[in-house]
């Protein structure tokens, strides 16, 4: 027979083992949970960038999941991309996963490359070797895309539009005493995809002897927060511990077509609120009963009010676009930049793979990492 003391000891031990297992399970669950959401995020970004849809990569051929992944991606059309390509909702219905049957390599001989050379070139830089024939034929030509994204000028040598390159000199002047402090950081309103730059500031690389932990000049967001209005620059700091000044950060603002942006806001309003926002049919309902339908939006720095969702867009980007000066009648807007910054269009990010290189080298003495 076990003595009561021994029984107690055993009970404690069993209890301990049980608790330990439970704790381990909880931790494993958390870990798996975070893995899944990370992967999901990565997938949705990939889907959005439209870089691996309906296409065959070199190595995943041996991957038994490849076909399944492809279907998964095909199921979920990124509406932002369709919008840029000038497609309507019915178009996405035409391309269904079940029709993914014939992979081709577009070529000039059978005319499958004609007018889409530039697009195929972009895909091949991502190591794509084949594409579904039907899907490929549904893609607009490069000229049609340039028309859609309102890109005028030289068609063959079209370059991405980067607004604000004229403010580079001011940025360089302000940071000339210590160029190794120069950084680049993204900003954008809710529902604008944020960039992850692959830029390095050679001055930083040299100073820290390539120690990447010290950062090579890409910040995750501007110091006042990626979604925070630009008017908070110099007023509000999201992270108090940063070891650089706001003048040492060049914001790169990502901007979308306002119509597409409003459509996305109707689906994912984040912290913005306005009357009848839940009504899918009437959203964004800029006016109600003849009056502007006011919007309230919450940011880290506080709450802002706007006459309507369209006004919110103008107000938010206006802080990055317009300078202001005090005139006799009060504050007026001017087209002088409020501070050095670059503004890049969402469309250009999609169709000019090189846009990030341009941004990197444009005015920060940052060089593309991948060169
Ligand atoms: C494409 O393939 C080359 C050679 O195999 C490799 O070095 C490169 O990293 C690949 N690029 C991408 C974007 O996967
Ligand atoms: C930058 O500095 C140079 C040399 O001091 C000066 O000539 C130029 O006007 C400055 N530019 C700006 C935009 O501050």
TrEMBL record:
Region (Disordered) location: 60-81
Keywords: Membrane, Transmembrane, Transmembrane helix
Transmembrane helix keyword on record: yes
Lineage top rank: taxon: Eukaryota
Stretches that traverse the bilayer: 12-32
Name the record gives this protein: Sulfotransferase domain-containing protein
Species: Thalassiosira oceanica
